[in-house]
Amino acid sequence: MLSVSESKSVFEKIKLLLALSTRNLWRQKRRNSVLLIAIIIAVSGVIVLNSLIRGMQTQMVEQAVSGLSAHINIQSAKFRDDPWVGHGFIEDSSKLDDLFLKQRTLRGWTTRLHTPVVVMSERETRGAFLVGIDPERESISFINDLHIEGLTLTRTLDNSVIIGRALFDQLRTKLGHRIVVTLQNVQGISQDIGFRISGVYDADRNGIEKQYIFTGKRALQQLLDTTLISEIAIRFQSEKDAQQAQNFIVAAFPDLDVATWQQLNPLSAFMFEIVDVVIFIWLCIVLLTLVFGLLNSLLTAVLERKREIGIVRAVGLRSSMVLAQIMLESVLLMVLGIVIGLLFAFLFLFWIHEGIDLSMFAAGVELMNLSPKIVPALQLRDVVLVVGTSLLLAVFASLLPAYRSARINPIEAIRS
What is the pLDDT of residues 281-295, one digit of tens each? Predict the structure, then answer.
């Protein structure tokens, strides 16, 4: 343990180092100002870009989970390869109620019946998926949040349909008109069914509007004369909860195919997995570039101050103090840049907190299963990573200049 006199001596040394480092930084205003601006731009740019990428990552998961797949989707083993109603399975409501009541982390579950169909209006013909739903249970999916013009579905026995705006425009029909869908029934026979359009929905993505037509599940079962369902969609409070419950659900449905949202949305899952790698690579490129600038600046400063360093060494300043001084200059400059950079980043993120509209890039955005509006998601771990890595690289960049300054011969430096 340090004595009072030793503690005072250490404090005086630190005070001296801070005074010398601050003075030296102030002397080279132009060079250090340029470097400081570079640090501010690098730190704020990395934080902002990381937040946008994290926002996209969060949105990918939300779009996938709030879609028809949910966190976990249970289907017949044949259904994914051949989505025909005959490849469904019988719904055991009492078993499902007993099973899911035990899952405290469950957000909700629902059953659906869906099949590919050919849709015909009075003018046009298009392909789509007809999905029979239980409206009361669809709070787990995007269906519950759709903006609908006209009437929505309220019961499983509703035999009207709601269709997407994009498909509605393609069919060139009107609200309240009838459409005819052609599908294969349970016997594998082509069957035509007429529906009245009760509502038109608007979704975030054009692809959803073109792809899905919704009707009541029980109504569709009666029209097809079947009790089969195509899937059970289960949504949990979080991804972690879903992973913990997966083995339990697999054991409960040994004869069915239990798939996660990652298996049903491989592109979104891939994009989600590589986000951390992209952030790390981006961080390395920016900060390593910054380190070379900092290293060059410090080496130049050491060469310019060679005579000065020789004089202070000659009057008794130890080489360890000179080394610490150069390293402290680097750290002080980096700390100042980090503080200002974080301030600018937080202000910019607050300015765009409602999101950035990417509707002009709609095709590319939909390909990645994203909404046209990207909302930034600032994560503490990213801020800590940027700050920690920046400080570490500042120390690393100062090692060579500090070592060279500590090795300067006082006599030769004074004579030069």
Answer: 877 787 777 777 777
